[in-house]
Write a structure and sequence with these properties.
alpha+beta; 8 strands; single chain; 4 helices; Multidrug-efflux Transporter 1 Regulator Bmrr, Chain A; 181 residues
Length: 181
C-alpha cells in the first residue's frame, strides 16, 4: 500500500471509539455565526477571523481550540469557534461565551485533513454511534450537537494535526458505559 493509499483508507474508515469521557463544565469563548446555507461557506471564514486571537483570550486554559455546532430553533444551526477559558469574568462583550454543562461524550478521532472532517462526522453519526448503540443528546440549547477539539498539534495553516469529534450522549445510554480517555 502506498503512502497516499494509506492516507485515503484512513480518511474513509469508520471512526473507532476512543472512549467515553465525562467532561465539564466547559467554558468556551469565541465567535459564533448562524449557518443557514452550506457550512463549508461559513465555517472556514469564521475560523480565519478567530485564529489571530487564539492564545490571547484572558484565562485561556491551553492551546487547544474547539468548533461547536448548536441547533438554533427549528431551523438552522450556529457554529462557534472557541477556546476553553477558566471563566468569563475578563472576557469582553466582543466575544460569545458559552457554558457547556458536565456531560458524557463519545470521543472519536478524525484521521485526515480538516477538509475531510465532514465525511468523518457523517460516518460517526451514520455508522459508529448506531453500531455502539449510543444515542446523541439532541435536547436543549445548553448542549452542543457536537464538539470538534483541535489539539495544540493541529496546524490551521496546513489543515493537519490531531482532531477529535466529541458527541454528547443521552444520559440513559451512558449510565452503563464504562471507560474514559
Amino acid at each position: 500500500m502506498t503512502g497516499m493509499q494509506r492516507i485515503k483508507s484512513q480518511a474513509t474508515a469508520i471512526p473507532v471509539l476512543l472512549g467515553i469521557s465525562e467532561e465539564g463544565p466547559i467554558h468556551l469563548a469565541g465567535l459564533r455565526e448562524p449557518i443557514d446555507g452550506l457550512p463549508h461557506q461559513v465555517i472556514p471564514s469564521l475560523w480565519n477571523r478567530f485564529l489571530p486571537y487564539q492564545g490571547w483570550l484572558p484565562g485561556q486554559k491551553d492551546k487547544s481550540s474547539y468548533g461547536a455546532l448548536f441547533k438554533r430553533g427549528s431551523q438552522g444551526f450556529d457554529y462557534l469557534t472557541a477556546v476553553e477559558v477558566t471563566d468569563f469574568q475578563r472576557i469582553n462583550d466582543d466575544w460569545d461565551c458559552f457554558d457547556i454543562p458536565r456531560q458524557r461524550y463519545a470521543v472519536f478521532p478524525h484521521q485526515g485533513h480538516v477538509s475531510e472532517l465532514r465525511q468523518t462526522l457523517h460516518r460517526v453519526f451514520a455508522h459508529s454511534l448506531p453500531a455502539l448503540h449510543l444515542t446523541p443528546n439532541r435536547q436543549g440549547d445548553e448542549s452542543p450537537l457536537l464538539l470538534e477539539r483541535y489539539a495544540e498539534s493541529f496546524d490551521p495553516r496546513t489543515g493537519w494535526g490531531d482532531i477529535q469529534v466529541w458527541v454528547p450522549l443521552e444520559r440513559a445510554e451512558t449510565a452503563t458505559m464504562t471507560g474514559t480517555l
